[in-house]
Amino acid sequence: MPPTDADNSSREKTLLINQLAVVLRSAEVHHVKNIAVAKAVNRFVDQVTVFVREEGNFVLELRGDFFFVNDFRIRYSSDIMVNFDYLMRLFRKIEVGTLIIQPGVGINDIIALTEAFITAPALNPFETVFQKVSHISSITIDHLKNIATEDLLDARKMVKKSYFNAVSFTRGIMSKIQEGEKISLKKSKRMIVSLVDRLIDHEQMLVGMTSIKNYDEYTYHHCVNVSILAVALGQRLGLSMKQLTELGMVALFHDLGKLEIPGNILNKREALTDEEWQVIRKHPVAGVRLILKMKHPDNISIRSAIVAFEHHMCFNNTGYPKVRKPLPQDLFTKIVSIADQYDAMTSARVYSRTPMSPDKALNLMAKQGGTQLDPVLLQFFINMVGIYPIGTLVVLDSREIGLVYETNPASIGRPRILIIADEKGSEMPAAAFDLSEKNAAGEYKKNIIHTLDAAKWNINIADYLLEG
Ligand SMILES: [Fe+2]
Ligand SMILES: [Fe+2]
Fold first, then answer.
1. pLDDT tens-digit series, residues 138-192
2. How far is ligand 2, taken at its centre, from the CA of residue 391, in Å?
3. Between 20 and 30 A from 107 (CA), which of 122, 158, 166, 319?
4. How far is the CA of 462 from the centre of ligand 2 (A)?
5. Per-residue pLDDT for 5 more than 90?
């Protein structure tokens, strides 16, 4: 499909914000008068001049977790995520909510703006920046408004609803398949499309939902979690909407064959016997059979069957089912395998394993790059979930205990956390804290010392993440 005018205009706005972030980031690394900064400034001035000629002015606003350009909400996309995140943090830090650029803006104006932004003091940052830019006639700034909470709460509610809808839909479809009913993929597709939509706008929140593991119905949650994690990874790889939808469907059905495993084996708490393992190992082939029985088989069913068959074969073909001449794994299989392993390792109910904390699971998976898992995709996955994934409990140098609720793409070791226990270890009302925050001396205010195992500490992560 050729890009429409709307696509082009949205891209133009996205690129403008991106370029502004490039200017500010490079000025923070180098000096404002550095050649790299000068080049970035020139480019931004060229772009913004063209933009204001067409649109009258350039109004960049930060509302809640989103940037708006001339009232048009800018979508997160993987290629500019780090710059977006940087700009958002900077705006919040210096308490700037609106930046307006008018026709006639010149290179010196942007240099002065850049200087004001990156040298803003910790005390009264907005007032200082405001004073520094007040003489520039083409630039106006306004204070950040505190409307974030309500918007975010609404978004969180929506994400929660989508997640639980997906789970109950999955429960419905699986019980129909179990009863031998012939189902069609159309409805699943609709459900996945809405999940993909949510994921594009609220990746962190939706991925966060997958970290809540204390459900009774592991199987349905697992299917939905793997689907969400796979699509999130696919998004990072730059897959199109159509491909993401296909990937989401394929991932949802990866374990369909488990419907044929007797409950007493599937839910067994103790270690499985060799015979029981034999039964478990049949689920990829059973999955293929069940998928191909669906109504109106199409490309998606075929790809689902391939992934169901391959998802335990491993990158180096050491897994199961064993085949005489293994073919290279499908890209979707490689993605699903990573999402599957991560969700399974961090869940309590798989093959009587105890759940692993997210960071431990990731550490273990990192060692499987090139053997069980595709090393390149795994690296993308680790970058996505961060070294402290959502749901990780951390101990800070202040002795407080925090729970990671949002990762930070610009600095993966410094996520956003909820502080849930004070320095004495007593539980307290959750307070949000951004670990990339620095004090006036430029030092980080708080640091992570080590992680904790939520299961051992009897902390119910779901309580915090669901209530937001
Ligand atoms: Fe499986
Ligand atoms: Fe699985």
1. 999 998 876 555 566 677 788 888 999 999 999 999 999 989 898 888 888 999 9
2. 20
3. 122
4. 21
5. no
Distance in Å, CA 17 to ligand 1 centroid: 42
Average pLDDT over residues 53-77: 83
In terms of Cβ atoms closer than 10 Å to its own Cβ (0-12, 13-18, 19+), residue 41 is buried
| CA 252–ligand 1 middle distance (angstroms) | 11
For residue 257, the ligand closest to its alpha carbon is: 1
Read off the pTM: 0.73
Alpha carbon distance 136, 107 (integer Å) = 12
Distance 389 CA to ligand 1 centre (A): 23
Query: Which alpha helices (DSSP H) does 134-253 contain, by range?
Result: 148-178, 186-201, 203-209, 218-236, 241-252
Alpha-carbon span 427 to 394, nearest angstrom: 14
Q: Where are the domains of the chain?
A: 5-146, 149-385, 393-467
SS3 253: coil
Distance, CA 283 to ligand 1 centroid (Å)?
Answer: 7
Q: How far is the CA of 339 from the centre of ligand 2 (A)?
A: 8
Architecture of domain 149-385: Orthogonal Bundle (1.10)
SS (H, E, C) 68-86: EECCEECCCCHHHHHHHHH
- Record the tokens describing residue 135, joined without a space: 């003489």
Residue 224 confidence (pLDDT) above 80:
yes
Instruction: For residue 126, give the nearest of 112, 116, 139 by alpha carbon.
Output: 116
Q: What is the pLDDT of residue 352?
A: 45
More confident residue, 214 or 461: 461
